[in-house]
Amino acid sequence: MLNLPPLSLYIHIPWCVQKCPYCDFNSHALKGDVPDNDYVDHLLADLDNDVQLTSGRSISTIFIGGGTPSLLSAAAMQKLMNGVRVRLPLNSDAEITMEANPGTVEAERFSAYQQAGINRISIGVQSFSPAKLQRLGRIHDAEEAKRAAQLAKNLRLRSFNLDLMHGLPDQTPEQAFDDLRQAIELDPPHLSWYQLTIEPNTLFGSRPPVLPDDDALWDIYQHGHQLLSAAGYQQYETSAYAKAGYQCQHNLNYWRFGDYLGIGCGAHGKLSFPDGRILRTVKTRHPRGYMTGNYLDQQNEVAMDDRPFEFFMNRFRLLEPAPRADFQNFTGLDESIIRAKIDAALEHGYLIETDEYWQVTEKGKLFLNSLLELFL
User: Fold this and answer.
1) Is residue 281 part of a domain?
2) Mean pLDDT of the chain
């Protein structure tokens, strides 16, 4: 038997104006207009197929990611949100996030998104440097990024986030700190500050740029962390900082091994059932195939042997204590199964253990991959 965790909904919008050279997300450069009305119909048909997997639970958070969701018209967004509400019960305080690029945020349209129910926006800024934005293939400039942040603030949304990268091609520590200071000046309740990594199957993967060396990256991280802490941001996950009470609830549910429906091109889902099964689903990646009505690409049950690694891979990204009871409640496994591995993590100094929880140490944060490998 499993205790059923909170349930979220992820909705994927697959189109971008152009593909960024570092991006390995399932996004496709636009050729013509966004078929947003037809795509919303397919999203809702996809959701119809998945409603049976929810075990009657209500939705605690929604995240509309991409691609560039802010390419959807306001009417299409309203139709999508209305359709979701008809099919699933939404908690009255549900956090509903939409990703947006600064170049595609318009005041009139964004106010309409808010009326459709969007109460949190995540703005993909990445940098304020014109040269770095050009190198990253971004289509906005620094002023558009600042205008989008101000717009989000003026709308008095529940929250907004700025995405910012560091460790960019040929970036000096001072350039990274300058980006960070400009982001902090905009006073977002939440900041995602993450290091650029080169992924296979990207333009940067085939033609890698020169990135800062490890010493420079460590300097950027340490000093940047100090800047964020001094400005009132608390790190709660590897790359996420928030002011008190403004952590992203949707991502917290992922990392706490919660459940989520995934609809749209390439969307992933994870569903637990009262009989002890845990099911993972993946939807058809390409819009062409997806919009023929062929939504489900694959699904598989998570084997008992794989559950400890999957649980801790998520849980140990968070810096908060991990309640020991959650392991049995959400995996269906007794703690004795992992006792030797926990003992090894304690011996290495990666974890602290109390009667109630496990806590990742500073050393555990630095050697997170080594910690997780114990549970493979």
Assistant:
1) no
2) 94
